[in-house]
Fold each of these.
Amino acid sequence: VLTVAKDFDFFYFVQQWPGSYCDSRRGCCFPKTGKPAEDFSIHGLWPNYVDGTYPSNCDSSNPFDDSKVSNMESELQEQWPTLACPSGDGLKFWRHEWEKHGTCAESVFDERGYFEAALSLKKKANLLNALEKAGIRPVDGKFHTIGQIKDAITKSVGYEPFIECNVDSSGNHQLYQVYQCVDASASNFIKCPIYPHGRPCGDKVEFPSFSSISSRDEL
Ligand code: 5GP
Ligand code: 5GP
Ligand code: 5GP
């Protein structure tokens, strides 16, 4: 039989918790446009294969073009802020995500469509609300089991997410990124065909506040 290789099988939609990105040894720098709201923010929408491997940097002839997202920049600044140092306006982060991941799904969307799809998935997931409904709020010094966190999201979204943790300066594990699986049309959440290999959480996980965080350049 002749089989035709597919571009990819499904997507990981990955959001980060800014409180945990910042509350690490490296710290963070707020974007030039100001401190983001206390909410999850988008990391990326990543095409993946069901065997766990993934394509990357698929089309150097289609580099990121600012002008294609110019009338959605304020929404991207809110929903997809950059927290890396030094402070940026977001364009570098969006460029990286489009070129590394977005260009591997050009059969589904163009550059503008890539960012629109991610914004729409973030609204659908409404992770902060899912956790809030289960009484899980961003509070320093309060711990949850990984099961409580996953159950809250599963109940609200319908499918089990993958949770990645990082470690704060006191050695506590904290909720860092949430991976959700999305069908090949980039519109619906699905049951994950395979979970990513992330850093383990342990069973005592903090969901730290972001409101108490300062930018590294203010310290
Ligand atoms: P890390 O090594 O920090 O987990 O991942 C570094 C980068 O590699 C991610 O930001 C992402 O661009 C890419 N990456 C890591 N794991 C996966 C994966 O399972 N699927 C895809 N598509 N990309 C990944
Ligand atoms: P990935 O890990 O997706 O391949 O790469 C993420 C890249 O974007 C890294 O070079 C990282 O420094 C940069 N970056 C800029 N802002 C952010 C941010 O807020 N979160 C993450 N995870 N990476 C960011
Ligand atoms: P179990 O398969 O019993 O749920 O979990 C086995 C181990 O994997 C436990 O140590 C648990 O903390 C960890 N674990 C379970 N689910 C996740 C997850 O979504 N992300 C990460 N990073 N670790 C997990």
Note: The chain has a mean pLDDT of 96.
Amino acid sequence: MTESNTEAVKLAEDKVKHEPPPLYKILLLNDDFTPMEFVIEVLKLFFSMNQEQATRIMLKVHTEGVGVCGIYPSDIASTKVKQVVEFARKNQHPLRCVMEEN
Ligand code: NFA
């Protein structure tokens, strides 16, 4: 291995050790059909919110069109998005959930 290559490896290792992982916002989007109570259940089940927090976020999405329900590293964010989308689909609701880089 060349000197410049070992130096590049050291720098990459330092980056892995010291830098926090990139974070992703999970967004819920409003629609006209998903029941408010179902959205509240989603927020309680997948985002560990209590009734009061879940109601506040649901109403924000309902009135403003979009709302942040959590911020996580990529693997956790993508797992949660999949779980929410699958849970909505199984219950035949069109609720949309997406992630975006912070
Ligand atoms: N707008 C939906 C309704 O009036 C409720 C809703 C809130 C849907 C948040 C999706 C997200 N039943």
Note: The helical segments are 3-18, 36-47, 51-64, 74-90.
Amino acid sequence: RRPADCPPDVEELGRATWTFLHTTAAYYPEKPTPIQRANMLALLKSIPMLYACKPCGNDFGDDMSKNPAEKWVGSRERLSWWLCERHNEVNRKLGKKEWGCGIKEMDARWKDGPEDGRCE
Ligand code: FAD
């Protein structure tokens, strides 16, 4: 293991970024205001341009062009699903396991914890 105070590599940056994005989606409003929608769209669209791993950002931008976020920022459930599918696209590329993207799976992982209470 690399010491914790080293700069993040692609994997560590990825884990931190997915944690931020999925958690933000999990706490996004059920009925976002136009300003909240616009800010969420701006956040997502900034990734292809600004993400520190450039090939990652480029591929994410290609995927977002095929699956525009505009249609999915209308509610917490829709956004959580869309983001999970984008993460699965990267998982497929890297040969990692795909996730079920229903709101139950997403909330158990990113908001409420599993039903057996082991995260409490
Ligand atoms: P991660 O994929 O980081 O996932 C973290 C946790 O999220 C998992 O432990 C799991 O509990 C949960 N999870 C997994 N899948 C889902 C899902 N679909 N929905 C919700 N939760 C889920 N790496 C590269 O090598 N090449 C790339 O091109 C690349 N592109 C990336 C693009 C973006 C926008 C981001 C944010 C990251 C990218 N990464 C890329 C990093 C890569 O996705 C992983 O973060 C990294 O490989 C570490 O993987 P991990 O197995 O620890 O889990």
Note: The helical segments are 10-26, 34-50, 54-66, 76-94, 103-110.
Amino acid sequence: SSTHERTRTGMSKTALKQDFLDNLFYIQGRFREVATPHDLYMAAAFTTRDRLLKRWVNSAQVFKTSHARTVCYLSAEYLLGPHLACNLVNLGITDTARQAGAELGLNFDAIVEEEEEPGLGNGGLGRLAACFMESLSTCQVPAIGYGIRYEFGIFDQAIEDGWQVEKTDNWLRNGNPWEIPRPKICFPVGYGGHTESYRDEHGQMRLRWQPAFMINGMAYDTPILGYGTENVNLLRLWKAEASESFNFQAFNTGDYYGAVYSKIEAETISKVLYPNDEPEIGKELRLKQQYFFVSCSMQDMIRLHLNTVGPLESFAEKFVVQLNDTHPALAVVELMRLLLDDHGLNWEQAWDITRHTFCYTNHTLLPEALETWSVALFERLLPRHLDLIYEINRRFLDEVRMRFLGDEARVWRMSLIAEGGERRVRMANLAVVGSQAVNGVAELHSALVKATLFKDFAELWPERFHNVTNGVTPRRFMVVANPRLSRLITQTCGHDAWIRDLERLRELETHQDDAGLHADWRAVKLAAKQDLATWMQQATGIHLDPASLFDVQAKRFHEYKRQHLNILHIIRCYQRIKQGESQNLVPRAFIFGGKAAPGYFMAKLMIKLINAVAEVVNNDPQVNGWMRVAFLPNFNVKNGQRLYPAADLSEQISLAGKEASGTGNMKFSMNGALTIGTLDGANVEIREAVGAENFFLFGLTAEAALQQQLTGYRPWEYYQSDIELKSDIDLINSGLFSHGDTQLFRPLTDNLVNHDPFMVLADYRAYLECQQTVSAAYQDPERWTRMSLLNVARIGRFSSDRAIREYAEHIWKVTPNPIEAA
Ligand code: 26M
């Protein structure tokens, strides 16, 4: 009861109301009558944060004394999305907070809507890190997430004249109530300079690095609470700052303005997130960023270890470090440097610890996406690390030579340094050599990792390779994004245990033919579509009919994801309707969302084409009863949460073998969308889980695609022989969608006809035919509803809780560490 509750931590409605008003007054300096929507949001956020902090301090105290083995997740990206609604769900006080708000005369949804999301990631890889942090806490695994506190996250996308325009994401402008600055948790990070030898106190010759300049990394901590647990883990993001002593005294005596300039220069290191699919940009600053956060994180772990456990010999028992792609792979070298140069261990000791500390996840096989750094850049920026890489490589290649006598071609392929042409450091090889476990993110992807990218390594160390299929958190993507569906599921199952144990959704199967449930299920979907239509109308002015089939493709723009295959189908529908062949169609709303890397011309042209086709289609009264095309601007976590619940059909149409996993596919399916997809990434496993009869499959297999590429793929033959395909491409070239400009989309159409690296034309016919089976299925609402219901009932495996449990058991060897309420 409220009278016994302490202020700031009480969970009753009375306590929430009182503390909300207190926070409004003492933190925002406002009272109800003059508070802005932002003031109200801040007061709600602080009221929620207070409850988190109590659990956090409690968790920290327990972990400190229990010496629990701790997972450190190293990721250059965390695409967190808004915190408030998810934290309320995980605290279990959403309804109480809503009532408290109502009694204060506040609009709860408007307050939640006010939050500006931290978009510190590009797409799948960054969002996966965020889902994993939430599931680590839910699964009660002690963990720290380390990353960069970018001042500007992923750009905001505006659409002007159909083109993508990038706007800076100034997410910190109004303050961030979820982070706690830790000015005293601060580490020096060096760059440049040279390596020198010296004699230590025992007369031993040793090496050390004399950097040319130093900066500091300061910690900003965000608490991450699990669902229905008392466990709170830590997300620790580093901000770059000038190191005062270095710049102001040693170098810039008397040069005040020079000192200020070097301060600005230091701070640029954590200034902005880079797009991951930009061909060649800001190379040097990106390497500086990677080293910056890796160095701070490893120093922090060593500090924690010395403060709690003690001797560094046991470092790998206390910590296991997961490398989220190769962006943090320098951590392998940095830990070696710290152990050797700063803590006096010998090579064998240091390498043994290092090798047992790291694990590495690969997220893509695309050759253009594999990170390499020129040796020259490395030498200039990180000379000591380059020396260490050479020594790691020398010892490693000796091992290869011993195993495969006389196979010098293999040695070349496996070397950490690519030779011939400009010499480059291969970060993926470094990550594999420095890790005890390597994993792909879906079964197909993990198999391809072993068979192609890391074939030589899998032959040398077969036991090192694993699969852990990705997952997503049902708290954000079901409970928060789709409260209506969540309520219906809870009602139908008679419990809400599915939220923590997603396999229990299977209990819905017993109701698969329940007509009442079917009607409710359709009503829930319709309401979500109405919400999206309302939002779309005000965001774009485009009217969507909630009765039509919502056909959605939302993901980063990339040729391999084949948004242009989807556009060709739209153009085909348009032509069929114009020609009076609408008999097999159903009314559809084609909805797109996604950002293109600012320097990726072809991806930006795809966005322009969608908007160009939309303009013609949406203004043609002859087809408007049948189709609409809409581009939802600025697809991010928040907008994703509007989109997933409203989708009937989820487009997962990448060329087989190219999408490592995909996670949007899981989010759509969890919300009752059916998938049209290729046998790529996690689609394969989703189809197995939900049943082939509840999944619209089309297209080449990864094997067939590879085979056809090897024997010579000739896209123009498809173009010449399929008259509908030819007419769709010709219609683009006719200028119909570009006010008569016949050249605008030429780079795209020429590429398709002449090169088509992702085999759009090879899969065109199969895709159209599959879309016809979709339309037919949609015309039978009972059947469609049953399929939708079975998708949800059988999607439990794709919870990120399951993924985290697999990492914990097979890769990290950690066990849950439940925290008791304080
Ligand atoms: C780089 C340069 C030019 C073109 C493309 C790239 C590029 C492509 C992919 C760079 C990085 C890429 O991968 C990073 C990434 O985000 N991978 C995604 O990781 C998700 C989580 O595991 C998976 O679900 C996605 O399938 C995978 O694409």
Note: The chain is about 50% helix and 15% strand.
